[in-house]
Amino acid sequence: MKDLFAQIIQQMGEDLERPGLVDTPQRAAKAYQYLTKGYAQTVEEVVNGALFPSSSEDMVIVKDIELYSMCEHHMLPFIGKAHVGYLPQGKVLGLSKVARIVDMYSRRLQIQEELSSQIANTIMDVTEAAGVAVIIEAKHLCMMMRGVEKQNSLMRTSCMLGQFREEATRMEFLSLIK
Ligand SMILES: [Zn+2]
Questions:
Q1: Predicted TM-score of the model (pTM)
Q2: How far is the C-alpha of 96 from the C-alpha of 47, rounded, in Å?
Q3: Among this protein's residues, is 83 annotated catalytic?
Q4: How open is the CA angle 74-111-68, to the nearest 5 degrees?
Q5: 86 touches 57 (CB < 8 A)
């Protein structure tokens, strides 16, 4: 990636020999590797067996999970929060694992709709819950810095699986994350 970043910088009309830019291709390559590290991770690795038996069937909610991703259309960041809920049926997931699953899918080139559904489906698969809800609210730099240049628009996407497709369950979730 380092050589490719050097080419990009040159194509921008910059001088690669300029002191401030000498190490930039290397640094940019490292940064992009970090920002896309989710490609090198798998669900098994991230969950790492942190599934525990539980007799509770009450809704589990993890809200305000910080989220940093990059849109696949412009490779510019989108930044926001994810709220996740699920209805356990015998198994609960280690608390930090929900955030790690969000992170794994965020650190890839994404669109927000797909990100919501990948997180929800993974939690459903792993926990075999009766339902999973994922809401993501994010600001997209590609909308703020270019194009329509709308600074304050927040995009909200949701994915509701299983029992969360029912109005009452969905409403309970929405009121709990407020
Ligand atoms: Zn974009």
A1: 0.94
A2: 9
A3: no
A4: 80
A5: no
Nearest-CA neighbor of 82 among 160, 134, 38?
134
Question: Is position 33 annotated as part of the catalytic site?
Answer: no
Pairing status of strand 109-110 against strand 60-71: parallel
End-to-end, the C-alpha distance of the chain in Å comes to 42
Rounded Cα gap, residues 135 and 37, in angstroms: 23
**Encoding tokens for residue 23?**
């190490």
Q: Is 71 one of the annotated active-site residues of the chain?
A: yes
Residues 11-57: pLDDT tens digits?
999 999 999 999 999 999 999 999 999 999 999 999 999 999 999 99
Helices (H), 12-153: 24-35, 43-47, 95-106, 112-127, 141-144
Domains, the chain, ordered by start: 2-35 (no CATH), 50-177 (3.30.1130.10)
112-121 pLDDT, tens digit each: 999 999 999 9
Other Cβ atoms less than 10 A from the Cβ of 92: the count is 18
Q: How far is the CA of 104 from the centre of ligand 1 (A)?
A: 19
Residues ≥6 apart with Cβ < 8 Å to 149: 143
Reduce the DSSP state of residue 17 to 3 states and report it: coil
